[in-house]
TrEMBL record:
This is Copine-3. Calcium-dependent phospholipid-binding protein that plays a role in ERBB2-mediated tumor cell migration in response to growth factor heregulin stimulation. It is found in: Cell junction, Focal adhesion; Cell membrane; Cytoplasm; Nucleus. Residues 1-115, 124-247 form the C2 domain. The gene is CPNE3. GO terms for biological process: cellular response to calcium ion; cellular response to growth factor stimulus; ERBB2 signaling pathway; positive regulation of cell migration. Monomer. Interacts with ERBB2 (preferentially with the tyrosine phosphorylated form); this interaction occurs at the cell membrane and is increased in a growth factor heregulin-dependent manner. Interacts with SHC1; this interaction may mediate the binding of CPNE3 with ERBB2. Interacts with RACK1. Gene3D superfamilies: C2 domain. Keywords: Calcium, Cell junction, Cell membrane, Cytoplasm, Membrane, Metal-binding, Nucleus, Phosphoprotein, Repeat. One of its GO terms (cellular component) is focal adhesion. InterPro entries: C2_dom, C2_domain_sf, C2B_Copine, Copine, Copine_C, VWF_A, vWFA_dom_sf. PANTHER family: COPINE, COPINE-3. GO terms for molecular function: calcium-dependent phospholipid binding; calcium-dependent protein binding; metal ion binding; protein serine/threonine kinase activity; receptor tyrosine kinase binding. It comes from Saimiri boliviensis boliviensis. Belongs to the copine family.
Amino acid sequence: MAAQCVTKVELNISCANLLDKDIGSKSDPLCVLFLNTSGQQWYEVERTERIKNCLNPQFSKTFIIDYYFEVVQKLKFGVYDIDNKTIELSDDDFLGECECTLGQIVSSKKLTRPLMLKNGKPAGNGSITISAEEIKDNRVVLFEMAARKLDNKDLFGKSDPYLEFHKQTSDGNWLMVHRTEVIKNNLNPVWRPFKISLNSLCYGDMDKTIKVECYDYDNDGSHDLIGTFQTTMTKLKEASRSSPVEFECINEKKRQKKKSYKNSGVISVKQCEITVECTFLDYIMGGCQLNFTDKMFPAFGFGAQIPPQWQVSHEFPMNFNPSNPYCNGIQGIIEAYRACLPQIKLYGPTNFSPIINHVARFAAAATQQQTASQYFVLLIITDGVITDLDETRQAIVNASKLPMSIIIVGVGDADFGAMEFLDGDGGSLRSPSGEVAIRDIVQFVPFRQFQNAPKEALAQCVLAEIPQQVVGYFNTYKLLPPKNPATKQQKL
């Protein structure tokens, strides 16, 4: 009998007293979550953001995991000092790890453990704290926020402000739940719209106190507090573009020193809208078709001369049937590949953009229906060579507006730097003209990490980001499951 998911759990990570591996600055840590399903092999599931110059990081990105009461779910949290842009962890400094089960975290609600090195010795005085919260509802809060006349904390130039949201836990402590981007050199910043789950923000309690802090970002990690305010969702949700809700940003130390002190700026909430987000299962059960769920896969090749004219092509059907490029299941793809290979000549350059644009045309056609009826997943298997990086960047930025995702599996021992660059976690991928991808749609996985792993480990890792990408797209455009109007998004 298959295990039944009891609930979804959100894990919030912080560390203390990390090893300092950098000369002239501090470590730049991130935390990696590994799962162990086979009893032998650990495989990576997700990463937090990287925090520069910080030995006591509080990570904004959380891990959301399905909790199965009857299954021992082994987890490992690895902390690394990241000083380069490659996806490989082997060339980064290891700061320590902690192994435990999800059950131990859930039963404790807040688990603090020492970080250990690979040799079993403590990683100095380093420790990790994992806080767990059950996700009880699927409401999210959409924010648009700005500020004006913030204090200038910089001697040269202006402050580089960002916001942190904190909720109060049952033991009275504050837990950071969201961090905005940094706006450089600006005392009147306007932050990008963002969303926070209502459960993360205030446990779903509209009258629970929320603390918002405004900081001036510094490269050396010594961020200066500009000011803070406290509020509740009841107050925040009064905000609208025509009538923003505004809060004085107060720096208590500065107020105590200066009698004429008024505030350190004003934070303006221009929009605060609560919506109910449909889940991945809502869309699948409501009739959304992922284009690989019916066992028929369109399979294309790229980077080869094809008969009879032997022209170079970057989007040819592997079965040489343009009107019906579908193969029956994985076995059908393998058979088409074996039959195709002797008939073609592998040939450079290796261009990704034509095949991405090819699938994007299907995805664009699906948007005409104005429903969440179809979502497209493009799987690219590559040795890492790419000659049209700029065109591919533009193609991905364009595709980020469409119902599609791209999975890239890297085979062999080549340098996958370009592939890692395309996997723009955190919205970092830009087109050559500077346009930012509105969402992350690329998942890169190096196959060599899974050569000795059970076959399901690769599949799980490859597909790990698809559910949230599907949900993210349809919720962004407020598209409902085609057969399930009961899950309608609503403004509360």
